[in-house]
Design a protein that fits this description.
alpha+beta, two-stranded antiparallel sheet, 86 residues, elongated
């Protein structure tokens, strides 16, 4: 299937190259999320006071949904089985 420019949502106006770049970043984020290689919250204390770092990771379902949406606009969505009658 051919590329169809997005007509709704946050992806409106993006080119095929931009969508492919976003999909790559989303797939990388999904791998990082599933591999849990980023801290969600980290706290520690030193002589000069306490420090706290928070990371707000993406939701796996949300990331997968956006990848699926981008694939649809790129014409690379799931293929359906074709029924054949004899």
């Amino acid at each position: 299937m051919a590329f169809t420019p997005p007509t709704s949502g946050a992806l409106v106006g993006m080119t095929e190259a931009q969508l492919r770049a976003h999909r790559t970043r989303l797939q990388d984020a999904l791998v990082a999320l599933v591999a849990s290689d980023k801290p969600v919250e980290l706290s520690y204390s030193q002589g000069d006071g306490a420090r706290q770092v928070k990371y707000r990771g993406g939701d796996e379902g949300t990331i997968r949904a956006l990848i699926t949406e981008i694939n649809g606009w790129l014409g690379e969505g799931r293929r359906r089985a074709v029924g054949i009658r004899f």
